[in-house]
Amino acid sequence: MTAYKVLIADDNSVDRKVLSRVVRNQGNDVIEATNGFEAVDIFTEHRPDIVLMDVMMPGLNGKEATRQIKSIAEEDFIPVIFLTSLSDAQSLADCLESGGDDFLTKPYNHVVLQAKIDSYHRMSEMHRTLLNQRDEIARVNRHMLQEQRVAKAVYDNVAHAGCLTSPNIRYELSPLAVFNGDVLLAARKPGGGMHVLLGDFTGHGLPAAIGAMPMADIFYGMTAKGFGLREVLREINQKLKSILPVGFFCCAAAVDLAPDRQAASVWMGGVPDCYLLRNDGEMIETLSSRHLPLGVMSADKFNDQMTEFPMANGDRLFLWSDGIIEARNSDGEMFGQERLLNVVRDSAHASDVYDDIQRAVDKFVDGSEQDDDTTLIEVVMADALREEKESGVTKAGISQGPRDWSMEYRLEASTLKSFNPVPLMNHIMMEVPGLRAIGGQLYTVVAELFSNAFEHGVLGLQSSMKQSPDGFMEYYRQREKRVAELEEGFVRINMHHTGVGDSGTLTLTLEDSGDGFDYKRHNAGEANGNHYSGRGIPLIESICDSIEYRGKGNEVSVVIQWPLEQAT
Amino acid sequence: MIDFESLNMLKEIMEEEFQPLIELYIRDSDRRFPDMRKALSEGDCESVRMTVHSLKGASSNVCAVDLAEQAHTVEKMAIDGAVNQLGGAIDRLEQSYLHVREQLSEFL
């Protein structure tokens, strides 16, 4: 048995000696004090485990000495047992009220005495364990917060805010939201416009943060390389499916904002209804999730179908995670979709909605602990987006990278059916630092040339069909049909680049298996309703030094010299 | 006057400290009577009460049960401030104590 250190404070020396002997006989160490002052001093010096304190002592009485001892002990639990010959209920109650933990009435019963000492010793041990565990938890928590800060710094480098600071975006995201599972990403597309992704991972903490890292990496990497949002989503889905444990996934809303088409394509999986507000009207369009969250379906079952909404300048898209809807007030009541819809409906103007939502949620929650994060983003369609494109070439970077090279990429019918080579082509061109500055334009050029070669050449579709709304629909119906039936054909892409460091020449040549067209008529300026009605041609003409059609019109070669003479 | 059975148990418990304890009891108690009388002459009943309270506790510890009981009666008088009766009561208490002291000395 461990010896407990017992302080006995009693001015009556005979009483003290007898009690001391009894307690020592039971295997404890005893320190004696003959009055209250001495008891406090001895306590400070020796820190006994338990105190047996006579109530009536001259000078400092037992109750006052106990108060002082308890105050010195601070958060340590030092049981004080009062020794008293008083036996009326009030006197005994007074002992406890003055801060004592228990009392023993004289004459002492030795068995009860030892049992009490043992019992209080167990309690002290328990209290010590509790304090140690509390300190341990506090330490672990500090450590965790420190780790989170480091992890957050790493995460911020991977999932930088992208273009969330654009003037057409307003958003709210807790600084440590990544550990609450919310992710907000926005990136400009090389060809103008932007991709926006709002993600809400199941669970909190590390699992959510871990999933967010590759998601951001893929999102920014692929968007910069010119991949479409569908491909980006497909890739993210596949990645999350392979890295997240079963039952973990990411609810997401993804928007491809296309100012040139004045439209937004939206993909929503597992997120609450979002709203599209017209700048000029009262109408609220509700956008609902049509898909399962990211990371649930295997690659072959994943549905990347997007829904397109026309969006004029000033039209606003509001997206949120379930945090807002599940925000609780002090009564535990949730904010709910209906309240949210009412706020949107009651706003004076579309431009007030964002502030109104924030105000309403803040007022509703009113200081009560948030369960989830209230992630909210407003995306406004703006014409300016068309011009603001990602650039980032540095003077130092220009002399780096591949200089003189060429490559040929030939796609056969089976590949053309389902594969879009444009992002890959763009990716290769972007290796040349001097071309990055015009990445957006280049993407458009390659996309347009490829689209012409494939749709008009290989598939033999007439662009003149697209001139009426009905024809437009028919065009795409035909396109789908012909792609499905496609058995023969090819597109050959040749890229050739020469450079001298701060300037270079890129030649793109595309040949297709189609019948070609009478380009001489076009060159004479007579043509209308042929290949050239594609939207990309004016842009192609504006940045290409030359456009040359060859053969029967199934081969086109453009030359681009960089840096461009005029800033576009 | 003395519960010798309990006293024997105390002797067993205290072992070599038994004799010093009894001697300490006698030394302490001898002093208490002049203390009490002095306090009484000054009309300080509270002081009388404290002293007789201690005597009561100590006597009870050395198994002088009757003496302890008698001290308890005196303690109550002191609490009540019965100054007129206290002088005689203290004298009677001392008589009893002297008897206990004799018995304890013999026991040693």
Give the total of domains of chain B: 1
First and last CA, distance of chain B: 16 Å
Strand content of chain A: 15-25%
Rg of chain A, Cα atoms, Å:
39 Å
Q: Which CATH class of the largest domain in chain A?
A: Alpha Beta
> How many domain regions of chain A?
3
Fourth CATH level, the homologous superfamily of the largest domain in chain A: PPM-type phosphatase domain
Oligomer: heterodimer
Label the CATH architecture of the largest domain in chain A. 4-Layer Sandwich
Can you tell me the CATH class of chain B?
Mainly Alpha
Portion in helices of chain B: over 70%
Query: Per CATH, what is the topology of chain B?
Result: Four Helix Bundle (Hemerythrin (Met), subunit A)
Largest sheet of chain A: 5 strands, parallel
What's the gyration radius of chain B in Å?
Answer: 14 Å
| DSSP strand count of chain A | 20
Question: Structural class from helices and strands of chain B?
Answer: mainly alpha
Q: Within the largest sheet of chain A, what's the order of strands?
A: 2-1-3-4-5
Shape of chain A: elongated
Query: What would CATH call the architecture of chain B?
Result: Up-down Bundle
Q: What proportion strand of chain B? A: under 5%
Rounded mean pLDDT of chain B is 92
Pfam families (chain B): Hpt
Keywords (chain B): Phosphoprotein, Two-component regulatory system
Protein name (chain B): HPt (Histidine-containing phosphotransfer) domain-containing protein
GO molecular function (chain B): protein kinase activity
Provide a descriptive summary of the structure in words:
The complex is a heterodimer of chains A (568) and B (108). Chain A has 18 helices and 20 strands. Chain A has 568 residues and is an alpha+beta fold. In chain A, the strands form four sheets. In chain A, strands 2-1-3-4-5 form a five-stranded parallel sheet, sandwiched between helices. In chain A, strand 9 (250-258) and strand 10 (263-269) form a beta hairpin. Chain A is elongated, with a radius of gyration of 39 Å. Chain B has 108 residues and is mostly helical. Chain B has a single domain (4-107), classed as Four Helix Bundle (Hemerythrin (Met), subunit A) (Up-down Bundle), CATH 1.20.120. Chain B has helices at 4-14, 18-41, 45-61, 65-80, 83-107. Chain B starts with a helix and ends with a helix. The chains are: A alpha+beta (568), B mainly alpha (108). The A-B interface holds A 11-15, 17-18, 21-22, 25, 56, 58, 85, 106-107 and B 10, 13-14, 17, 20-21, 24-25, 28, 50, 53-54, 56-58, 60-62. Chain A: It comes from Thalassolituus maritimus.
